[in-house]
Amino acid sequence: MESNEIKEQVRKTYANAVLQGKEKNASSCCGAGECSSEVYNIMAEDYSSLKGYNPDADLGLGCGLPTQFAQIKPGDTVVDLGSGAGNDCFVARAETGETGKVIGIDFTPEMIARARENVNKLGYNNVEFRQGDIENMPVSTGEANVVVSNCVLNLVPDKEKAFKEIYRILKPGGHFSVSDIVLLGNLPESIRSSAEMYAGCVSGAIQKEEYLGVIKEAGFEQITLQKEKKIIIPTDILKDFLSTEEMTNYLNGDTGIYSISVFAKKTEGCGPGSTCC
């Protein structure tokens, strides 16, 4: 699919995810396609013990806990990419406190509307949600101390541009912590080419080393793998995309789908995108 077609498919899938609710989203592949009867929670992790957690904002669409690793300090400005109904934003707000600021960016109007409903209920005046494209963020250069994102960047067609945008909006010495989906080995073409699986966090994924290479090329340093977890797609979902023989080969092969949480830091002084050199 072309870039605009991919974005429209993602928008439709996540608009529908707002209506489906957490249970159905968690038992499907990030909200896409049919639910699994074998596994309740395919990718999302449990946020309920984190300070600031709000059940109304948790749609079960993540694949990690990036805010747990994000080293957010009181007074920080935090930007959450693909903020959904506001889950990570509210957890980040608990860390940055009343003196900080949290900005959620999401491509889907329905998600923005739900997030704004949630923040109005909570009465927070330092959390805001902006509709926008991660490849061209509505955020000023050098505005953020910390960027977080949960299972979103792999859906962006131009990942190089997305990470350059993250670099742009971070202050010198700022950092990000993102959870995302990557691959080890070659995913079967029938899965990779499926529009549903694309919006469900799999077909948009690239190889792990390529992903880390994109981060390095954007100018980041201290790139650290904070967590890695293999994702098992249940057979009752795989059967919609693979023949019996293909599924056997896939399950017994070396190919893997992984959730990773990655930390990286913007250079303190002159670097890519700076105006000091």
Describe this structure in words.
This protein is of the alpha/beta class. Helix content is 34%, strand content 21%. A 7-stranded mixed β-sheet has the order 3-2-1-4-5-7-6. Helix 5 (109-122) links the parallel strand 2 and strand 3. The model has no long low-confidence stretch (mean pLDDT 85).
Key features?
about 280 residues; alpha/beta; Rossmann fold; single chain; 11 helices
First-residue to last-residue Cα separation: 39 Å
Counting helices, strands and paired strands, the structural category is: alpha/beta
Query: How much is the radius of gyration in Å?
Result: 18 Å
Query: What order do the SSEs take from the amino end to the carboxyl end, as H and E?
Result: HHHEHEHEEHEHHHEHHE
Task: Determine the mean pLDDT.
Answer: 85
Largest sheet: 7 strands, mixed
- The CATH architecture can be given as 3-Layer(aba) Sandwich
What is the topology, as strand order, of the major beta sheet?
3-2-1-4-5-7-6
The shape, in one word, is globular
What is the CATH topology descriptor? Rossmann fold
